[in-house]
Structures are given as structure tokens and as C-alpha cells.
From TrEMBL:
Family stated for the protein in its record: Belongs to the BCCT transporter (TC 2.A.15) family.
UniProt entry tagged with the keyword Cytoplasm: no
Transmembrane segments: 12-33, 53-72, 93-112, 144-162, 192-214, 220-243, 255-272, 321-338, 350-369, 410-439, 451-470, 482-500
Record key words, sorted: Cell membrane, Membrane, Transmembrane, Transmembrane helix, Transport
Protein known as: Glycine betaine transporter OpuD
Lineage summary: Bacteria, Bacillati, Bacillota, Clostridia, Eubacteriales
The organism of origin for this protein: Oxobacter pfennigii
Subcellular compartments: Cell membrane
GO molecular function annotations of the record: transmembrane transporter activity
Length: 513
């Protein structure tokens, strides 16, 4: 009893109770009035992406440039922690970085994203499906979105491993700039915004990709593809990652290794068994070349006349801004995790390594899975573009891609297991981090108590169920992330400014030793 009472006294209750109230209230609204809530969300999203879209665009490019400056400046030489060598091997570190992000979403979008762009006027303006429907996914999942993770991973890693701060929260990273204000109302507001943004981001992730897993089970075992089956899949994922997260870092390392092996095996199968090896490789090389040649233009293009859309929203408002917001909403926890597992590495190593391993895994997924699907579309074996235009279930389109390969059922089972493990590893890392938010103080190296981790594991599953029952479209789910990311973007700059102020002071201290 004493131990239980001790845990209860250590918890930061406002940051537990208020998010719970918000999540339950939002679930009730989405389930009771799905159409009305969707209209409200879309209206807010429209204002943010249409009128303030420049904020997201400039933030993305600016933060990318900041990370490159930090890596190659004197800041890059700072070592995170007092270890002579990194805490984890390069393989362990790389697998945890890739699987610690929303790797299940990366796989999901790899199969389908080229088709979502194919009918967009923007793609036709640039030169057509072959070159640009395969290029834009690399842009939207490339250096700029990873920069959001990188810059905060460095700031949080410095705060935890160099300064030894015991509060693992967004607000604590702002202490060098805001001072003791982070212990008062301003700090509580920052942390509350961060937690709600993270819940919104994870809800979007679950709501987008879990219907694919339900469709896979339906295809293999003959179950009816329904909302109920999707909720069952959510329950399976929740059970797996709850069990795993209770085992701590050891469970995360094992899960990351297993799902990375499955991922690489499936990539090899699609590349060498699908009969499109040359096409996949050549289209991938072309896409990377297009991206490199046009990167600055893609990063700054805003379409002021909205000529790439319906006159109200253009391609950049519908897609680029959504993706930047999507990654920003996820930045509440994942960079903390990357910072935590980077003990013993220099800041330069963290920046370049995260870019290298993260982008490599992401690009391999989009180039191989995406270009294989595109090849089947151009060969007339599937018509996923038509399904997208007709508003049909795109998950069935992904299933059709699998049906063009031998051993479809076995592949779909592997896909199911792989994505469940991806979800498990991703949410293991998120739960470990967000559980630390629940404490007033938690020394570096210590993990939150199991009941606290179990609470957040359950919390992460509630909101997605509400969204799934409301049967929100991709557009509506995008709205959730865009709205949640805006206040987080403002906090970004507070954290970056705090890092520069504190790191400069640290370098000066080292000179005087």
C-alpha cells in the first residue's frame, strides 16, 4: 500500500485527468454527431491550411536548415551523456528509430499514396503519373518531416542526458527560455497541448491503417469486413503493445528487431518475386533525381491561385500541409524516445544517423511497395486510381495489389503480423514517453510504473475507436492532425530557442573547465 501511495503522490494529476476528459468528450461528440463534428473540424482545418498554411511550409524548411546547421557547428560535437560509446548498437538504434515512428503508416501509404495523387491536377501540371506520382511520396515522407523529429530529439536528448533534467516534458525543454514559468500555468498549458496533440496524431494513425488489417483478415479467413472487425483488430494491437510496454525497453528492442526483419523480407519478396525489379529500381532512381532537382521548389510552392485544386484548396493545402502537421503532432513523444535511446552519441551523429536510417527505411518502402503497385496499375492488372476517384474502399485496392503476387494469403498474414508489431513498437515507445509526462519528476533512466503505462496504453486506443465508429474519411482524419499541430508548431520554436541558449551556455562552461 505504501508503494501504491508513493506512486500516486508522484503523479502530475492535471496532466492525467484533463486529457482523459478531453478524449472522452471528443469520442462522445464524434460518435453522437459524426457529420456535425466533421463539418466543424473541416472548417477549422480549412482556415489553418488555407489562411495560415505558410506557417507550416516555412516551419518545415526552416527546421530542416536548423538541423543541418546544428550538425556541422560546434553544437554537433556535444556528446549526449558521459558514456564512451553509445548505449545501443547501431542496428538496435536504427531499428528502434524506424519502428518507433509510425512505421505502420509508412507501409500503408507506400502501397496507396501514388494513387491518391494520380488524379490531382498538380501531377499533370508537372509531367504526369509516371514521374511525379512516385516522387511526391518521397518528398512528403523525406527530409523535411524527419527534420521535425530530429530537431526535438536533439533538444530533448541534451536536456535529459547532458543537463540531467528529471522532468521529461515539453515544458521542461522550454526552461532555459521561460525559467520557472514552466512550473506554473504556462508549463501546464504547454504539456496539456502536447498530450492532446499526441492523442490526436495517434488516433489518426490507428484510424487510417487498421481498416487495412481488417480487410486482410477478411480476405484470408472470409470474415465480414466491418467496423466491428476493425475494432477487434484495434483490440489485438492494444493487447500486444500493452503486454510489450509492460516489459520495458527489452520488449521494445526485441519487437523492433523482429518487425524490421519481416519488413526487409517483404521488401525483398515484392522486389524480386513480383517480376518488376527493373521498373521498380529505375522509377525509384528517377523519383530521387526529381526530388533532388526540385527540392527547394517543392518545399516553398504554395499555389497562391489554387490552380492545382478546386479553387478553394490546392494540392499543397490538401497534402503537403497535412503531412507537415501530421509529423508535428507526433513530435510530442517520438523525439523524446529518440533522444532517450541516443545516450553516448554526439549530436551530429544523432542528426545524421536519424536522417540516414529513417529516410533509408522510408524510401525503400515507398520505392518498392509503391512502384510495384504503380506498375500493376499501368499494366492494367489493377485499377486503384479508379477506386480512389469513385470513392471506393482503398484498402481493397491494396488487397488487389497483393493478389497479383504468388502466395497472397501468406503475404497478407505476414502483413498483418508485421503491422501489428510495427504498431506495438511505435506505441511502446510512445507509451513509455507519455507515461513520464504523468510524473512531477522522473529521473533519467527510470521508467514509469506499470499501472501508469497501462493507463496510457488504454488511452491511446479510445479516441481511434470513436473515429472509426464515426466512419471519418481520410480528409476528416487529416483535419484532426492539422488542427492539433498548429499550437505544437508554436511550442517548437520555444524549444529550439531554449536549446540554443542552453547549449551555448554549456559550451562556454566546457571552455572554462
Amino acid at each position: 500500500m505504501k508503494n501504491k501511495n508513493s506512486i500516486l503522490s508522484q503523479l502530475d494529476w492535471p496532466l492525467i485527468i484533463l486529457p482523459l476528459i478531453v478524449v472522452v468528450a471528443l469520442c462522445a461528440v464524434f460518435m453522437v454527431s459524426p457529420e456535425g463534428s466533421t463539418q466543424v473540424m473541416d472548417s477549422i482545418r480549412g482556415f489553418l491550411s488555407n489562411e495560415l498554411g505558410f506557417f507550416y511550409i516555412l516551419s518545415g524548411l526552416g527546421i530542416l536548415l536548423i538541423t543541418l546547421y546544428v550538425a556541422f557547428s560546434s553544437y554537433g560535437k556535444i556528446r549526449l551523456g558521459n558514456l564512451d560509446k553509445p548505449q545501443y548498437t547501431d542496428f538496435q538504434w536504427a531499428t528502434m528509430i524506424f519502428t518507433g515512428v509510425f512505421a505502420a503508416d509508412i507501409v500503408f501509404y507506400s502501397f496507396i499514396e501514388w494513387a491518391l495523387y494520380a488524379a490531382e491536377p498538380r501531377i499533370e501540371q508537372l509531367g504526369g503519373i509516371q514521374d511525379w506520382a512516385a516522387t511526391y511520396p518521397l518528398f512528403h515522407w523525406g527530409p523535411i518531416p524527419w527534420a521535425f523529429y530530429v530537431v526535438l530529439a536533439v533538444a530533448f536528448g541534451f536536456s535529459i542526458h547532458v543537463r540531467g533534467r528529471s522532468k521529461q516534458k515539453f515544458s521542461e525543454a522550454c526552461r532555459p527560455l521561460l525559467g520557472n514559468s514552466v512550473d506554473k500555468a504556462p508549463g501546464k498549458i504547454i504539456d496539456l497541448i502536447a498530450i492532446i496533440a499526441l492523442i490526436a496524431g495517434t488516433a489518426t494513425t490507428f484510424s487510417l491503417a487498421t481498416p487495412l488489417l481488417a480487410s486482410a483478415l477478411s480476405r484470408v479467413f472470409g470474415f465480414e469486413a466491418s467496423t466491428a472487425l476493425t475494432v477487434v483488430v484495434l483490440g489485438i494491437i492494444a493487447a500486444v503493445y500493452t503486454i510489450s510496454v509492460l516489459s520495458g525497453m527489452e520488449g521494445i528492442i526485441k519487437s523492433a528487431s523482429i518487425c524490421t526483419v519481416l519488413f526487409l523480407g517483404m521488401l525483398a519478396y515484392f522486389l524480386f518475386v513480383g517480376g518488376q525489379t527493373r521498373y521498380i529500381i529505375e522509377t525509384g532512381i528517377t523519383s530521387i533525381g526529381n526530388l533532388m532537382q526540385n527540392f527547394i521548389g517543392l518545399s516553398t510552392w504554395m499555389d497562391p491561385l489554387r490552380e492545382s485544386g478546386d479553387g478553394t484548396f490546392g494540392f499543397v493545402q490538401n497534402w503537403t500541409i497535412f503531412y507537415w502537421a501530421y509529423w508535428m503532432a507526433w513530435c510530442v513523444a517520438t523525439p523524446f524516445f529518440i533522444g532517450m535511446i541516443s545516450k553516448g552519441r554526439t549530436i551530429k551523429n544523432v542528426i545524421l544517423g536519424t536522417y540516414g536510417y529513417g529516410i533509408m527505411g522510408t524510401f525503400l518502402s515507398f520505392i518498392i511497395f509503391g512502384n510495384y503497385g504503380l506498375s500493376q496499375q499501368l499494366a492494367g492488372k489493377v485499377d486503384i486510381i479508379g477506386m480512389v476517384q469513385d470513392g471506393m474502399d482503398i484498402n481493397q485496392g491494396i488487397i488487389q495489389i497483393f493478389e497479383t503476387l504468388p502466395m497472397t494469403e501468406i503475404l497478407l498474414i505476414i502483413l498483418f503480423v508485421m503491422m501489428v508489431l510495427f504498431y506495438s513498437t511505435t506505441f511502446d515507445s510512445l507509451t513509455l514517453v507519455i507515461s513520464a509526462y504523468s510524473y512531477k519528476n522522473l529521473p533519467p533512466g527510470e521508467e514509469a510504473a506499470r499501472p501508469v503505462r497501462a493507463f496510457w496504453a488504454i488511452m491511446f486506443i479510445i479516441f481511434p475507436i470513436g473515429l472509426i465508429f464515426a466512419e471519418n474519411s481520410i480528409n476528416s482524419l487529416q483535419s484532426v492532425s492539422i488542427i492539433a499541430a498548429f499550437p505544437i508548431g508554436i511550442v517548437f520554436y520555444l524549444i529550439i530557442a531554449s536549446f540554443f541558449k542552453d547549449a551555448k551556455k554549456y559550451l562556454e562552461e566546457q571552455k572554462n573547465i
